[in-house]
Amino acid sequence: MESPFALNSESHGRIRARMEEQMNKSMGLSAAFAVLLVSLMATGQERDVVKPQLLLSEVVRGMPKGESQEVRVLKASFQPGEKTMFHTHRFPVTVYVLEGTFTLEMEGREPVAVKAGNAMVMPANVKMTGHNHSSSEPLQVVVFSVSDPDTPFLDPVHRQ
Ligand SMILES: [Cu+2]
Questions:
Q1: pLDDT tens string 90-118
Q2: How far does the centroid of ligand 1 lie from the alpha carbon of residue 52, in Å?
Q3: CA 154 – ligand 1 centroid, Å
């Protein structure tokens, strides 16, 4: 049987008509339905239309609840061995790693290593330090923050 990806050479209507004809002849009801579904999905595809790829989806607690919020996008570059200050965030903050590996050390939790192309949500009110533990590779991250307006992106924590 013809691949559903061969649709460009023939009109969708003709392909579908042929599939329906074939499935009536030779297939059970569930298989026929599957073919119909695939053909409907294929006809829904347009050319030159970019579909975003989901990198991270997470249900979080502790986002700001006021009338308005401030959205910030920040970029940070770490040389090998560099780290952030010890800090907390008042609201969950999302990090996306462009290059290298970002290691997040959080008080009372296992460290988390996030590689280039991946994202994670950093929890609110947890003391943390972000590291580039590599001895040779730089690290670049983009950070997405949604907070109450005019609140700091992070609060430094002073070690006793
Ligand atoms: Cu942080």
A1: 999 999 999 999 999 999 999 999 999 99
A2: 26
A3: 7
